[in-house]
Amino acid sequence: KLKLAFLVVGVWFSWTLFGWAMERVTSTKFGEDGAKFSYTWTVVLIQSIGNASTAAVVLLTTGKRNFTGDVPARDWIIAGAAFMGAANFGLVSLHYIIFPMQVLVKSCKAIPVMFGEVIFERHVKLTTAKIISVMLLCAGVVT
Predict the structure, then answer these.
(1) For the segment 68-101, what is each residue's pLDDT rounded down to a tens digit?
(2) What band does 143 get if pLDDT is binned at 50, 70 and 90?
(3) Within 10 Å of residue 143's Cβ, how many Cβ atoms?
(4) CA distance 115 to 103
């Protein structure tokens, strides 16, 4: 239980620090002309390279040599492109809203994901239980 508490506090602290830093970088006016930071694609690319490098080191140190997990490269490319877009839009949104509001909006992403499952994965059925759980999740985030 102590390890779980440590991990929970670590996640909260890390995300709070990350949110504070990114909000500060994207909303502060820099230079003589007072321009806001506009290189969000570069930040997302650097984060992605860091994430991929960390994952590769972990896989290599644990003896796993299969970096794709037997998932087709096409699927990884789609997931990577979607991540890059989502992360970039999230950073750009910090020009207009504060970080806690961004987290609130992102936390309700279960709604479009639920409908996306039905649209793109034709065998997924939208059950009453699933709808209720998604709505309760979003209501819990908002309150």
Answers:
(1) 777 888 888 888 888 888 888 888 887 788 877 8
(2) low
(3) 5
(4) 21
Tell me how far apart the alpha carbons of residues 11 and 3 are, in angstroms, rounded to a whole number.
Answer: 12
- CA terminus-to-terminus distance, the chain: 27
Q: In the predicted model, what is the mean pLDDT of the chain? A: 84
Give the per-residue pLDDT at 6.
Answer: 95
Q: What pLDDT, in 10s, does the model give residues 123-138?
A: 888 889 988 988 888 8
**Cα 114 off chain centre by:** 17
Query: Packing angle between helix 40-61 and helix 73-93, nearest 10 degrees?
Result: 140
CA 37 to chain centre: 20
Please say whether the dihedral angle defined by the alpha carbons of residues 37, 41, 44 and 46, taken in this order, is positive or negative. negative
